[in-house]
Protein 1
Amino acid sequence: MKTKTALVTGAASGLGYELALLLIKDEYNLILVDIDESKLKKVKAYFNETYKNEVHLLIKDLSQPNVAQEIFNETKDIALIDVLINNAGFGLFGTFVNTDWKRESDMLHLHILTTTHLTKLLLPTMISRKTGKVLNISSLAAFQPGPLMSMYYASKSYILSFSEAIANELRGTGVTVTALCPGPTKTLFQKTVSSGCSENKISFNMACADDVARYGYNAMKKGKTVAIPGFFNKFLSTIPRFVTRNMATKIVRNIQEKNRAL
């Protein structure tokens, strides 16, 4: 059987690394993309020592314009992509009027434009071959507005909505799209938000990256559209259905403020 190839963004650590590990264990060749060259090279060295499949690295800042086109152009000479995992992302804590626009702009470009563009570039070949899988990393934050992390919550809501819509459009093509929506997870994400970020303080309901990755990976293999790991997280995702959006927003604001004060 022909060896399949997977492309994973944000693969140097956290969920991206854990997903790449699951893929190579399933004998996929890998194209790993990250801005952190040092960590990415360490990942490749470990994979090369332990597994026989090919590992290619692309050192890219995924928040920059046209980076998706660059990745697409460079991967065409390597292999056809069977699995795309849009994992790279970061957050920013603070009131909207006080947060740094450059940082927010980078986050929106990464979460929305790069994710969307890379998916758009790779889907046509998947459809023509009648096989392919896309896993987009959204968040439990996608289900309601998030005061004090407004742009992050909004961008993750976009990823969820986008993923659900194109998953519907792709029915019958052999290609599936899955949105993974984890709650708080132990990764390096927390360090990139801010020293006052609620994620830095939350210990309750904190999941391990390998467990979340395995849940999302299995959901992707099954072609599930939305994957929410953990019973409590599934419950939390339904709360906005039973309270007003105004109330849901107030609840999130209260949680953010309390955790910041810890």
Note: The first strand starts at residue 5 and ends at 9.
Protein 2
Amino acid sequence: MESTNRHQEVLKEIEKFNKDRHWGQHHSPANLAKSIVLEAAELLENFQWSDEDYDESSVQEELADVLIYSYQLAMRMGWDDDELVMKKIALNGKKYPVE
């Protein structure tokens, strides 16, 4: 239950951050999807030359950007992000059974 409350707190903080800056006007589904890809590329850049030698702080920041944009896209579309993940895990379980 505590993690659900924390998750809702995070989503509300993302909404407040964007509302305070009037950024919602720029957050069309297409723009959010583009931003996810751009931030994912920045995340990957941390591992461009080495799988072991990377700046952990930078990886955390870029991963957070990917998550934030992903949450925003789900919110913009009116989708529950936890439900999306659970549905996908179930689909993957059927596609890739244990045996």
Note: The mean pLDDT is 96.
Protein 3
Amino acid sequence: MKYTNFNDIPLLLSVEQLMEILGVGRNTAYALVRSEKIKCIRIGRIIRIPRENIKEFFM
């Protein structure tokens, strides 16, 4: 799904959605999360990225 507006992005994103938004591959998306350049929430093995953290990444 293509997002046309920042507010169209879901409040919590999966890594796959992050890949689509940033236009990067799986390894790069996981590297951004691991390095904490993009902060995430971990629930067990599940990784979710809050929409606001993507905004912070670009600032």
Note: The chain has three helices and three strands.
Protein 4
Amino acid sequence: MNYYYIDFENVKTAGLKGVDALPSSDTVKIFAKGGSDQMKFNDIKTLMAAKATVTIEDVVTGTKNALDFQLLTDLMIDCVKRAGMSPAPKFVIISADHGYDPAITQMKKRGVNNVYRATTIKDAENGNFAGKEPKQPRAKKTTDDKKEEKPRKKAAPKADTPASDAPVASAAKTEPSKTQKPEQKQPSSRPSRRRVHSRTINKDDKNATETPKK
């Protein structure tokens, strides 16, 4: 025995998908405003052929979110009336409005754990309920964590250097220091013979030594 509360102004006829598969023990309550004309003829035929009990609740309008408040009020009254039943029935709100989720969370805090929300009746039958607690976001990894997770690259083995058959080059010859002055040759104290001879010979000797012409 399950109860479905249709927020018709929110889901329109799409929320009724799956109503034809409900058993006769289930109850479907459609909450719609008096001036609503969104229900198609084929949808009316489907509701009339459903095995489950289907009722249309005329919503009193005039205030904001009037439909939502009346839907929740009807749901809570049913919860109180059916409390203690075994097995406990499911009370499912059919709506895409996330505004119902805080009310469902509050009910769970009070020990009422059989109230859910889904976008269609078929989703509810398959256990695809909306408004589940979101998953906790993963903590951002720090720089140290990234360093630890990063695999270390193995150093490539060094190739063995083949021994060279060539002899080791000798040390470079030491060049003389630029500041060191080259050794200067000392001038000889002995005068050149040719110069002395050329200076001491007089004119007579020069004439005597010349070979007479024939």
Note: The mean pLDDT is 77.
